[in-house]
Amino acid sequence: NNNNNNENNNKQQDGKTKLTWAEEKRLKEVTEHTKKGWGLSEVENGVIHLNSFIFSEFKEKNPKFLLFFYADWCPHCSQLKPTIVNVAKEMKNDKLPITSIECSLNKDICDTYKVHQYPTIKFINLSEGSSFDIPVANTSFLVKSIKRQMNPNWKAEVAPFEEKKLWGSINGEVVHLNSDHWESYRSSHPRIFTYFYTAWCFPCQGIKEELGVASLSFVPEKQKNKFIYTAIDCEESVDLCDKYEIKSYPYMRYFNSSTSFGEEYSVGRSRYDFREFTELKLKEIRKIEKKLQKELKMKKMEEENKGQALDKEQIEEIEKQEKKEQEIQDQQDKDKEEQLRKEKEVYEQEQKQEQ
Predict the structure, then answer these.
(1) CA distance from start to end of the chain
(2) Above 70 in pLDDT, residue 39?
(3) Which residue(s) pair with 100 in the sheet?
(4) Are 120 and 133 in contact (CB under 8 A)?
(5) Residues facing 233 on adjacent strands
(6) Is the pLDDT of residue 281 over 90?
(7) What is the pTM of this model?
(8) Residues above pLDDT 70, as percent of the chain
(9) Ramachandran sector of residue 46 (left: φ over 0; alpha: ψ -120 to 50; beta: rest)
(10) What kind and span of H or E run contains 254?
(11) β-strand 251-255 against 263-265: which pairing, if any?
């Protein structure tokens, strides 16, 4: 009994709950374990590493904070740690604690917030009794999302669109877009092929080069605004990728107008598969253009005839010329398809030999 009384007295010393020797030992183990894998010390990286022993006291002093839930065994969590550190650095002057908690060692806290998938990021607002899930993304998107939670009226400054070769030497003519410029770019570029990817997606990396190489075959089409290869980083534009209900990567979609929802691309992933698909779409575009050209030509001729309808001979002449042009185009398409088929066969043989 005396031992129990002494322990209770120790716990209430100075008005604060004092840990037992066993609890202090456990706290030390948890603290040291938590810091492993972060690369820098708690002070240097700006992230506050919480645990079950200090969580209640932390909440009393911090009504709002960002909490990164992770598990040591989760590879995606480990990849996200540098991003969380960058968020802490960028929000250093915003007076919002950026915190983390390892759920294998602090299951009670994670269960309280009903977190069973990792990584999970929540904006905690104790004054309102709410917690808001923030999508896992890159530093830029996370900072924007957090600031909107802190202040609903906050708006990010949008820089003018600038075409950059973000993939370096393998970029080709791929245009990189994000949520800020998506709609405005589409309004003036109606036909685009879009590649949605993430940095952590391993299969996505190989497709970058294939897409970049394919895009170099259609520089004139890009310049004429007929067909453009574009790319979206879904860690930067989470909202945009959610709009198209993208659940796995890599993912590709073709948009044939500025307002269409587009069609999912689910064919091959080599440079030649992309080129074949593009040639198919260009053929469809040419048919539409031919039809419009014919209608305009007939309308112009009717105007020259002072509103009189075209006679049979005039219509036959137009159709004769149209047929001749189509035959030439069909032969060009046939030659191009054959050349592409041969190149693809050689490429696939080379790929097999390398494997």
Answers:
(1) 74
(2) no
(3) 49, 68
(4) yes
(5) 197
(6) yes
(7) 0.73
(8) 93
(9) left
(10) strand 251-255
(11) antiparallel
